[in-house]
Write a structure and sequence with these properties.
Elements lengths: L2 H21 L29 H19 L4 H17 L2 H5 L3 H21 L9 H25 L5 H22 L4 H20 L5 H22 L3
Helix pairs in contact: 1-2, 1-3, 2-6, 3-5, 5-6, 6-7, 6-8, 7-9, 8-9
């Protein structure tokens, strides 16, 4: 595939991905009854308002990939990140439809989406960071956290672990991956924004539940401070 064709493909996939919520079945989280062990109130899940970040992700991905297609289609600085991003977006086009039917299949898909987005971020170049690196970084950051949430719900949902241990393990995994990505792309501040926004949503829901989950809240708060603090440190040019 030529550089130009790949650039336009990523742009087209970004547009379709952004339109997917309007085309797919309404989705407001996994159906509790889709699990062998119903998950009526998962302990590791952001508050509803946190999902509003998808609006920013969709718009920024479309804007960034559009800039790349129409202003930098043949630019080699953009090339390496386009293949994994295309794979992630291609899977993402179908994610909402699958998630409404099978949490397990959706979890496998979101792991692949996150892997593609993270690889795209790692491979991103240095030119036009607000159009190339940062849209992918925000997308990858949110998907990193969303992958942990999905796993943290599926583990108790399929009877593999109790809810709180599953939540603790999943959050720990998110923070390990986030710290690793930050060590490779320390100046990709939007990655930290995606992670921290999700952690804030988890923190707020954990403390506001009828039965507050203080351990989950404490890990989310610590992660927010560590990831956010590192992002500020790196952005300051240290």
């Amino acid at each position: 595939m030529s550089r130009q064709t790949l650039a336009y493909t990523v742009f087209l996939l970004s547009v379709i991905f952004a339109l997917a919520p309007f085309l797919a079945t309404d989705f407001a989280g996994y159906n509790a009854e889709d699990f062998p062990v119903p998950q009526n109130n998962p302990v590791i899940q952001p508050a509803g308002w946190a999902f509003s970040i998808w609006g920013v992700i969709y718009l920024w991905l479309v804007a960034g990939s559009g800039y790349g297609a129409f202003r930098a289609a043949a630019n080699t600085d953009w090339q390496a990140m386009r293949y994994p991003l295309a794979v992630s977006l291609g899977i993402g086009v179908f994610w909402l439809t699958v998630a409404a039917m099978s949490p397990l299949a959706a979890t496998i898909m979101i792991v692949l989406m996150a892997a593609g987005a993270i690889l795209a971020l790692i491979r991103s170049g240095t030119e036009s960071p607000l159009m190339q690196r940062e849209p992918t970084a925000l997308y990858a950051g949110w998907l990193t956290a969303a992958t942990g949430v999905s796993i943290g719900i599926c583990l108790p949902g399929y009877g593999m672990l109790d809810a709180v241990p599953a939540g603790v393990i999943s959050l720990a995994g998110v923070l390990i991956v986030a710290l690793w990505v930050q060590s490779i792309k320390p100046h990709a501040w939007a990655y930290a924004v995606g992670i921290c926004w999700a952690l804030l949503g988890i923190l707020v829901k954990s403390v506001s539940d009828v039965e507050p989950q203080w351990l989950i809240a404490g890990i989310a708060a610590a992660g927010f401070l560590i990831i956010g603090g590192r992002a500020v440190y790196f952005s300051a040019g240290k």
